[in-house]
Fold Helix-turn-helix domain-containing protein.
Amino acid sequence: MYTVPDLRAHGGADAFLRNCASRAVLDLLTNKWVCLVIGALRPGTMRFGELRRRLDGITQKMLTQTLRDLERAGLVNRDLYPSVPPKVEYSLTPLGENVGVLMDAIRVWAEDHIEDIRTAQVTYDAKATEELQPI
Amino acid sequence: MYTVPDLRAHGGADAFLRNCASRAVLDLLTNKWVCLVIGALRPGTMRFGELRRRLDGITQKMLTQTLRDLERAGLVNRDLYPSVPPKVEYSLTPLGENVGVLMDAIRVWAEDHIEDIRTAQVTYDAKATEELQPI
DNA sequence: CAGTATCCGTCCGGATACTG
DNA sequence: CAGTATCCGGACGGATACTG
């Protein structure tokens, strides 16, 4: 029989519960663009245009939205230099650097296990197909 | 000036590129339910119904879909016991246990930093409001 | 018990146009 | 340069009904 592990080990928060605030934090973090933006900012400060070019495939809207969410959550700093043309620099806060270690680990894991995943998927799809046509 | 770090350090994969296969893997992993399902399975094998009850708020459809995706990617085992009523047990594969360490870290981080995030968000929202009404 | 099938509203995310 | 505003299709995800 399954028993729930000790949830109070770190403050009583439990992301498995739908109304726990940690579920919302998890929602924020488990996002492709969030992972990549934070990963891009780990080496250092970047401007908006630099981020847009680095995050291949992201639209202006999604980059703006992601950066706002991260700024609001206190993971990213936004520094505006009111020059003409305007210059905006983004960087990680200490909290952002903290979670950045985890975001990087996820991204690197994905990069390192492409073949494992692809092989498994091909095998799975082949089995599904052969079940439909047993010769 | 920003320079791209050495991408070839682990096989040439780069999730920042839109067509890199690792981007698809990242897409699979950066998902709330994926994180929670893998986290729930780390302590050991669980049945479908047990998972549904543990992952508060998940629907049958999303649980099935998530489990299929993970099974197809080779992260989860599905063991069917053709009894009546049927019994299906889910567990992590070695690959699943491997990424499970990272998924758990993300979830625990979320649980541990609720207050930091909430404080930052309240502060951000307060500033946005005062800018609209400078008295 | 562990699904599959279907319907349907929401909102994610892309494309485009415009601005300080 | 770094946004904002708007439109829109399609996927995501929930609710419900049915099944081996």
Q: What stands out?
A: The CA atoms of residues 15 and 25 of chain A lie 9 Å apart. The mean pLDDT of chain A is 89.
